[in-house]
Design a protein that fits this description.
Number of strands: 20
Shape: globular
Distance between the termini: 24 Å
Number of helices: 11
Strand content: 25-35%
Strand order of the largest sheet: 11-6-1-13-12
Structural class: alpha+beta
Largest sheet: 5 strands, mixed
Number of domains: 3
Length: 395
């Protein structure tokens, strides 16, 4: 199995991604030829060899003379629809634009079609996203893997003013993606880079096992204390090495023991910690010293929100001390499909080991909506899902 691995130790942006994929073997002439199919006059893409801290790779600069133009998702869809690009490239690019649009919509409390892209609506960003789709289609790997993504820190100036790093849209796009921040006081991952990762990566791991076939580097613009480059590998994974196809993430576990707090307060505490961004929050009954009954509060989260979680626990519980440690999280690969039922569409989530579907279930909110609207029982809907998904598995 051939894989593409993104090593995002210095984050990822649209131009760094293009540079890395060109550096690893995507022909420049092919990219330029495909970009012309957008039918936008005046685009000039320059390629050069640049170095950061002694690491040399490909620098990509997109030049285009354009005024202050705001495009919405429909404008971008029209550009793609009218282009001569393949349907696969159009879909891959559109999926990334939708990720950005939905994130911006949530941040600014607007619907997707009301969002006007600023930086992302500019021609250079359109080229970055469409170029990513072109290059990934060309490489035609079996899977795309990615490391924990470095986000950077500090503040950045954008169309809305001065905002903190990571930018709110980046946080929204990279929901459920392993990230870390604060390595440098600059923005190292942009919304475009975040969408490229979220829209295309199949597996996140900091401990990949594969044979390296090629390595490429995409060089960024900024000079920092660390090399401002994106590293990518083309790797080969034998069937034996990938037979279980698990997803490995490294997360932070935060724990504390509590024996002198009213139980009803835990409902509020768990709800608010989830709001901060924790992956999981749970309590366990324990016996503490002198045989006192108590509970252990556990929180599983990314390192970048650990300080917020710890401050909240100290302020809102009776705990005086907290334990934290890194854990390796092993997950089954998951797929989501839509099942058409007599009452409407239901999302079905499947968990796989390799290519084998080991377990599956319907989306609870979808089932609840159908039950309420049609006056039927949960059992009736769930039995329909089981019967029909198993029938599909036998085909």
């Amino acid at each position: 199995m051939k894989i593409l691995y993104y090593d995002c130790f210095s984050g990822v942006s649209g131009d760094m991604n293009l540079g890395a994929l060109i550096d690893i073997g995507v022909p420049k002439e092919m990219l330029l030829s495909e970009i012309k199919k957008l039918n936008i006059d005046g685009i000039n893409i320059e390629f050069s060899k640049k170095g950061k801290h002694g690491i040399y790779g490909t620098k990509v600069d997109v030049k285009y003379e354009e005024g202050h133009v705001h495009r919405n998702i429909n404008d971008i869809r029209e550009i793609l629809d009218k282009s001569e690009l393949s349907e696969n490239i159009k879909k891959r690019a559109m999926d990334m634009f939708i990720l950005i649009g939905e994130a911006e919509g949530k941040v600014h409390n607007k619907s997707l079609d009301k969002i006007h892209f600023h930086e992302v609506g500019a021609i250079d960003s359109i080229v970055d996203v469409v170029g990513a789709a072109i290059c990934l289609e060309y490489l035609d790997v079996d899977e795309i893997w990615c490391s924990t993504v470095q986000l950077g820190g500090g503040f950045v100036k954008c169309a809305h003013g001065i905002i903190p790093v990571p930018a709110p849209a980046v946080c929204e796009i990279l929901k459920d993606v392993p990230v870390k921040s604060g390595l440098v006081e600059f923005e190292t991952t942009t919304p475009t880079g975040a969408a490229i990762i979220k829209g295309n990566v199949d597996k996140y791991t900091d401990t990949p096992q594969y044979k390296i076939l090629k390595t490429g580097y995409g060089v960024g613009t900024r000079d920092m204390d660390i090399p401002n480059v994106l590293r990518v590998h083309i790797g080969e994974v034998s069937e034996g090495e990938n037979k279980d196809d698990f997803i490995m993430n490294r997360e932070l576990m935060i724990e504390c023991n509590i024996d002198d707090m009213k139980a009803e307060r835990f409902d509020f505490i768990m709800e608010e910690i989830f709001e901060i961004g924790a992956k999981d929050v749970f309590i366990e009954n324990i016996i503490m010293k002198k045989s006192r009954p108590g509970v252990k509060l556990g929180v599983l989260c990314n390192e970048n929100i650990s300080d917020d979680v710890i401050k909240f626990i100290f302020k809102n519980t009776t705990s005086l001390g907290i334990r934290k440690y890194l854990v390796d999280k092993v997950m089954m690969r998951r797929e989501v499909q839509e099942l058409m039922t007599p009452w409407g569409h239901i999302k079905v989530k499947s968990a796989l080991i390799g290519d084998e579907v080991v377990k599956f279930k319907g989306e609870y909110e979808d089932i609840k909506k159908i039950v309420k609207e049609n006056g039927i029982s949960f059992n009736q809907v769930e039995e329909y899902i089981v019967k029909n998904v198993r029938r599909q598995m036998k085909k």
